[in-house]
Amino acid sequence: MKFNVASDLLFRVDEPTTLLLNLEAARYGRQVVLKEQLILPDGARVDEFEAPQERNRITRITLAPGEAPIRYRAEIELSPILGDPAAIGEIPIDRLPLHVTGYLLQSRYCQSDRLERFALEEFGDFEPGWTRVQAIANWICEHIAYRSGSSSAQTTAVDTLVEREGVCRDFAHLGIAFCRALRIPARFVSSYAWQLDPPDFHAVFEAYLGGRWWIFDATRKSAVDGLVRIGTGRDAADAAFTTVFGSAELLDMTVSIAADGENAEPTTMPVSFAD
Amino acid sequence: MKFNVASDLLFRVDEPTTLLLNLEAARYGRQVVLKEQLILPDGARVDEFEAPQERNRITRITLAPGEAPIRYRAEIELSPILGDPAAIGEIPIDRLPLHVTGYLLQSRYCQSDRLERFALEEFGDFEPGWTRVQAIANWICEHIAYRSGSSSAQTTAVDTLVEREGVCRDFAHLGIAFCRALRIPARFVSSYAWQLDPPDFHAVFEAYLGGRWWIFDATRKSAVDGLVRIGTGRDAADAAFTTVFGSAELLDMTVSIAADGENAEPTTMPVSFAD
Amino acid sequence: MKFNVASDLLFRVDEPTTLLLNLEAARYGRQVVLKEQLILPDGARVDEFEAPQERNRITRITLAPGEAPIRYRAEIELSPILGDPAAIGEIPIDRLPLHVTGYLLQSRYCQSDRLERFALEEFGDFEPGWTRVQAIANWICEHIAYRSGSSSAQTTAVDTLVEREGVCRDFAHLGIAFCRALRIPARFVSSYAWQLDPPDFHAVFEAYLGGRWWIFDATRKSAVDGLVRIGTGRDAADAAFTTVFGSAELLDMTVSIAADGENAEPTTMPVSFAD
Amino acid sequence: MKFNVASDLLFRVDEPTTLLLNLEAARYGRQVVLKEQLILPDGARVDEFEAPQERNRITRITLAPGEAPIRYRAEIELSPILGDPAAIGEIPIDRLPLHVTGYLLQSRYCQSDRLERFALEEFGDFEPGWTRVQAIANWICEHIAYRSGSSSAQTTAVDTLVEREGVCRDFAHLGIAFCRALRIPARFVSSYAWQLDPPDFHAVFEAYLGGRWWIFDATRKSAVDGLVRIGTGRDAADAAFTTVFGSAELLDMTVSIAADGENAEPTTMPVSFAD
Fold first, then answer.
1. What ipTM was reported for this prediction?
2. Residue of B63, B111, C128, C263 with fewest CB within 10 Å of its CB?
3. A250 touches D: beta carbon within 8 Å
4. Matching CATH number, D2-79+242-259, of 2.60.120.260, 3.50.30.30, 3.40.47.10, 2.60.40.2250
5. How far is C264 from D11, CA to CA, in rounded Å?
């Protein structure tokens, strides 16, 4: 299915300031960037980098004082794999591909090392595999209140678990932490998210099951087969849409995504874009 | 019912060291100290203090270098009030005696301010009063593993909730934090605990319901009508059996309590010693 | 010296809501309330309590839905003791009055138990007594940036020490934590603060030295001989100017204090109001 | 210079247990593994992985119940670059190679996002470059007490900064966190460490300066030109010498390293092994 995505950011800086932007859609086999355009302020010094493993596309830009509009437009073709919940199992630790074991580790916002008993108690009895991770996502959706402004850049999965409120990034962090605590590799994905209302950048998580990465949205706010991936990493630290070195005020931001096709309907089946 | 309690502590200090001891049974109307003896090392400088409100009895002693045995023996008469669970309600905040409102506040180990949503979600639907606090105690007993050595002097209620293991002090802290989050005054009680096996100092909590303080042991390890109170406070910081200023090694400690009467049987009814 | 203090708070509540107010000046020998008036919304149910030990004056009020103005006016006579810095020493732990030892303990916002090495390293070499506590206050003033909005109701002394910014309450918490880590009893004081600009409620701390409580303002923003005490306690949890049970929006607040006398000049000497 | 390294671990497991080992010396241009032998228990299922970027060598082994000895022996040739302190500068953020910017991010044990003010205040005035990072290492050595057993697997850089004690891993975490807070990429290195006494696995950190990674040992316990690198990563989560999935008791462990040459002398100059 094709999607048109767009983001418009307007920054103001008072002195020359460097930003790392991660706004561009990632290039995977199942996520093809058909067309795209990143429009940066005139005269800005710019360079780009595509991370070899997760393929995050980083654009570094140094802004001169003043207002700096940044625009991204892209047309994306998504070809998700849809799975059968019952057939997507967990891979025991002794057979996991070693290159995914890094996603079992605790990270800045996902202290899975502290949640082993909790995760085992709440989720230990579910059918291993997609069913269990979906149970995790359901638990989060039912127990954590989604409240704009209820968390900060320092909020961790443990905080969210205790305080029982957060935003999409916190929901994703908690899902990741529970998965890792159960020895399921899990990672953070930032995205343009189809059907998210109101439109915004969105965070979801992926769990490595049955040899692939499957997408979960614990907020239940997006249609995950229309998820246009931007950044992938251990947690939000790895996939910020913008990292500012200095001080830049974000004056305005709009984000959008639209399915190219009138009758597009989201799936309810398991969705995967990456192996 | 009468109880004989005893504690024997053996310290070694290398240089003159001051300790605050809180080993002596508190004196309340329903807890009468019939006889007692506190035997301190010869020649130690000693003074005593009984806190006016919670009646904790503090003995300050400065030990000379060497080994220092400390022994306490007492005979205690307990006259608990036994209540009817259904009749013990919560007092709304606008009618609580103002002198107990301090026990609604967050404290070092009981960050009730962070647990409001959690407490409301888990315990909001129970019948207010003894039934609800008992539900809290039950939840803790069922979800937190009792494991010696699993926590430290810095472990808080939030840590215990996340890591799902602890000792009696952690169980009490979590019970207190949940109560306060629900606007039920709650406090920490250190004690000689009847039927605790193996014998040791023990921590439980009290909740203020229906105009009295009712005892709860979330570990379910003691018989609370045989609870000989030592210290009372907001949390363990207030009721340490010994606070050492300097360094004193505790070489040995034994604690015991016995009911004076062969056929003594613990009650299963709500128990209160204090108003 | 005489002072006129005033505070005006305007709340809006949507449903009946109970508040504990602590706005009234405390009554101590050296702080005499000459005249005062607390004007509460008509028809509100009200009761009052003066804590026996710290003498905090708590007014409980249950507000009906709507806007609720609360006004306090008072005329206060302060008779501080001024001390000689060199003569105000520390009292060793074995001679401290036992009733102040509770102020050596860690509390919700003052985790002194974690700061012993830090405090000893930074402040261990100063002359014990007022000089050392003043060194603590100076260190805080020099190392912590005062920034409105930089902290929250959950910010602790440890957070402030790490993040190096805060407001008056955070400055006080850090001072208290350092003192206790050095075995100097210390406590939190909320106040109307002379010369504070812009006027607001203010937080300072007291340290127990030479047999009295001496006032320190690590923000250096107020004149401490014109400090009209409201609440006293272990930390901000004990001395909030308002504790809301339910949800009340504070629409507006103004606070003022003025010295009654044209040429009043603040002192630079140690100041104490309490023993 | 050549070094002989060895490690001997003896585990006992009660049920089949999978371990990820990271004991083998990494293979870099300036660290050549001349000979090596990893001896694993007979019959164990084993597979290996060398991470493409940091080149950590992971061996996965599933142990059968019983005692399991693991032995590693290697002969390593190190060819460090020695630098001139004054010539090793910092690279501004707008010219840093983009592939190292990931090492600017906060991580599980290195919350650099919380330490910006602290780092700027303490280290902002030093000459940027090697001199400044050495000042960080010196500060840590002077302010943090090295004490075995003083920290746990959950201890973070913030904890170490507050509590002022730790072991090599904590020293490294704090160094990394300070560097990142100053926008200097920094990473964790586990190692066989020449002249460390008593011998053990050791943790140090690297900072990216002047286009290379320079080694710093804030404990001052090892000779960094004799540092045989094992694992590299954001923090200790990435470079544990053993990660156990299940429960394995480490019964015994010995580690050694010896310079192959009688008169080997450590350098005092800046040392780098990696670009």
1. 0.92
2. C263
3. no
4. 2.60.40.2250
5. 76
